[in-house]
Specification:
The chain is mostly beta strands. It has three helices and 21 strands. An eight-stranded mixed β-sheet has the order 16-17-18-19-14-13-20-21. The protein has a seven-stranded mixed β-sheet with strand order 6-7-8-9-4-3-10.
């Protein structure tokens, strides 16, 4: 096998309708904490790896890819069937493609050197802990005014604003999940969920714009058809509860104030990603 083949990486969405390959190593990898990325991926941060465009090939399912223009410059692609965000391109930067690192197969190392830096840190979710010692770029935006812990109701929605919801009380718990299924459904290296009583959540707008993927019956996940944001899930075994992607809450609000988070399926994490905080870890749920 040539060095070229050894550096070839593969990836795709959860439902496998879309598959791609890209020539590594990555030019750079970074963690983005901007509100736009959080509300597009339904994740506390987007991890993105940049590759030369010439080495990127869509091997399967190009007709299943939906494009969402999150700004005049950024064009995001997600699977129309399962909602997984896969890659982005930027206007005027035609020579590179920005891969959602969480969609790489089996948590492959994207090929960057050193620790990925954190960007737009001023707008990160206040309750998400950055503890890996990597470089942090505050970004151009000021630190927003924090929503006081324990404030309810809280409001949230997807990036395009088509789907909006309200929660009227605290979630039972919030946790970070590292399983490949969740990484592939969000296109994120770390996914975060809040488990909340169904009676406490109201979808105020855009319910008809939510599509459903049966990720592992009886688990059903819901994402916005327009921007692809993964937002909710339910479990037929506990019909009184709902899953919520808390990264979609406005203002980085905390849905479980005063409660410690934890990491689940920690041994399933992306091979290169290190869990650096002091939160509890388990190898299952």
């Amino acid at each position: 096998m040539s060095e070229h083949d050894e550096n070839r990486l593969t990836g795709g969405c959860f439902c496998r309708a879309v598959r791609y390959s890209v020539q590594g190593p990555a030019l750079e990898t970074y963690h983005c904490h901007c509100t736009m990325c959080r509300k597009t991926h339904g994740a506390v941060m987007l991890t993105c790896s940049v590759y030369p465009r010439a080495g990127f090939v869509v091997d399967l399912g190009a007709d299943r890819v939906t494009t969402y223009d999150s700004s005049e410059k950024i064009h995001r692609r997600f699977c129309s069937i399962c909602g997984c965000h896969l890659w982005d391109t930027e206007k005027g930067e035609d020579d590179v493609v920005m891969i959602a690192t969480g969609a790489l197969d089996h948590g492959q190392h994207p090929g960057h050197e050193g620790l990925p830096k954190h960007v737009h840190v001023n707008t990160k979710i206040p309750w998400y802990i950055i503890a890996d010692g990597a470089e942090q770029d505050p970004g151009p935006d000021p630190v927003p005014e924090a929503i006081p812990p324990g404030t309810f109701p809280l409001y949230g929605g997807c990036q395009c604003g088509t789907v909006r919801y309200r929660i009227d009380g605290p979630a039972k718990e919030t946790y970070h999940c590292h399983c490949e299924m969740c990484r592939k459904l969000h296109g994120a290296v770390v996914t975060t969920f809040s488990y909340i009583k169904r009676e406490l959540i109201t979808i105020e707008k855009g319910r008809g714009n939510l599509d459903v993927i049966d990720s592992s019956p009886p688990n059903h996940r819901m994402f916005c058809k327009t921007c692809g944001c993964p937002m909710f899930g339910d479990d037929g075994r506990e019909p009184e509860y709902f899953w919520l992607s808390p990264a979609t809450l406005d203002g980085g609000a905390d849905p479980t104030p005063g409660q410690p988070l934890r990491h689940v399926f920690a041994s399933h994490k992306a091979t290169w990603f290190e869990i650096s905080d002091d939160l509890a870890q388990s190898d299952d749920f």
